[in-house]
Each structure stands twice: as structure tokens, then as C-alpha cells.
Design brief:
Blueprint: H1 16-19, E1 54-56, E2 62-64, E3 67-69, H2 72-79, E4 85-87, H3 90-97, E5 102-107, H4 111-132, E6 138-143, E7 147-152, H5 155-169, E8 172-177, E9 184-189
Parallel strand pairs: 1-4, 5-9
Antiparallel strand pairs: 1-2, 2-3, 5-7, 6-7, 8-9
Helix pairs in contact: 4-5
């Protein structure tokens, strides 16, 4: 130290682990883009966007400006539009064909005494998801004594239900994706 200044790394008050580029570090801000993730196309979503205004025959969702909506005001306005087309939306097609994008299995001795709370949580998450994207829906809920199986139209809602169950009741959640499709299997146990 010829000039009296310290050489080498300077302590900043942060641990070496926090300053390193380690993926387990909790950071705020944007999440890094995942690379090498295979993009699976959904066969129920048309490659070309619909021209004009389109209404689903089954659920009355309206497709306008490349977006689906379940807003009743938009539906009432769309019905009065000339040249409106009627189709079956991708979510209703999946429900009709019984092709889930996600399967959530809940199994626990905890279920019988908290069944109504759990079902309310599932219905509330379904409603929240529909408000954001009408194509995300719960298809079916099958109940057994210590098990509930929920099928969803896409994998994102299945993941969302797994996170909501964990936040509300803790337990253990496992996420698995099928190798040849985007289908997610979520298992919650407690």
C-alpha cells in the first residue's frame, strides 16, 4: 500500500452471496427471461385473429380488438353490431372436448372439515382469473371424501390455484408439466 489506500474488494455491507449473481437471491424488479423454454402452441386458439366482432355462442364472451371479454356491457353493445359472428370460444371448446390445460389434485384429511372454505377459495380464484382472461376457467370440480380434483382450461389457472391453496392453508404443493404439451399437474397435500 504505497499511497495508503486499501486495494482489493471493498466491503459494502452486503454479504458475498447477495452481491453475487446467484438465482436464489431475492431481488426486486424484473424477472430474468427464461431461455430454452419450449413454446407449445394451443391447438384451440386460432393462428389468425378473428376479423370484426365475434361472440361465443355458449358463454357470450366477446372477442374484439384481439381480446376476449366477459363484460355484460360489451356483450350488449356487440349484439347490436352489424356483421357480428358467432363462434365457440377456445375455453368452451376445451370444456366441450374435456381437454384440460391443468389438473389440480387436493388430498388431505384436512379437506372434510374445511371443504366449503376450500371450494369458495377455488371459485374466487376462478372468478378473478376470468376477469383478467375469460379463457382461464375452472372446467370441473370432482369431490371425494379426502380429495378434490379441479380441472382448468389452461396451466396458468392450475398454478394460480396451487399458490392460493398454499398461501391460505400451507401444506405442500408440487407442480409438474407434461413433456409434450403445456398441461400442468398441481398436487396440494397437507
Amino acid at each position: 500500500m504505497a499511497n495508503g489506500k486499501r486495494q482489493g474488494p471493498v466491503a459494502t455491507g452486503r454479504s458475498d452471496r447477495a452481491s453475487a449473481n446467484i438465482p436464489n437471491v431475492r431481488r426486486r424488479g424484473t424477472v430474468p427471461i427464461r431461455r430454452n423454454v419450449q413454446d407449445f402452441e394451443d391447438p384451440y386458439i386460432p393462428e389468425e385473429s378473428y376479423a370484426g366482432t365475434v361472440i361465443c355462442r355458449t358463454c357470450h364472451a366477446v372477442h374484439e380488438n384481439e381480446r376476449w371479454s366477459l363484460d355484460p356491457k360489451i356483450y350488449e353493445e356487440a349484439v347490436r353490431t352489424e356483421g357480428v359472428q358467432y363462434v365457440t370460444c377456445p375455453a368452451c371448446q376445451k370444456i366441450r372436448d374435456r381437454q384440460p390445460g391443468g389438473i389440480v389434485t387436493l388430498s388431505s384429511d384436512f379437506i372434510p372439515e374445511h371443504r366449503q372454505e376450500i371450494l369458495n377459495l377455488i371459485r374466487n380464484e376462478d372468478e378473478r382469473a376470468r376477469n383478467v382472461n375469460p379463457l382461464e376457467r375452472v372446467m370441473e370440480i370432482e369431490e371425494d371424501t379426502n380429495e378434490i380434483v379441479v380441472t382448468t382450461t389452461n396451466e396458468k389457472l392450475a398454478q394460480r390455484l396451487g399458490r392460493a391453496l398454499y398461501r391460505a392453508y400451507k401444506g405442500h404443493v408440487e407442480y409438474h408439466w407434461m413433456g409434450t404439451s403445456k398441461q400442468a399437474r398441481v398436487r396440494w397435500t397437507r
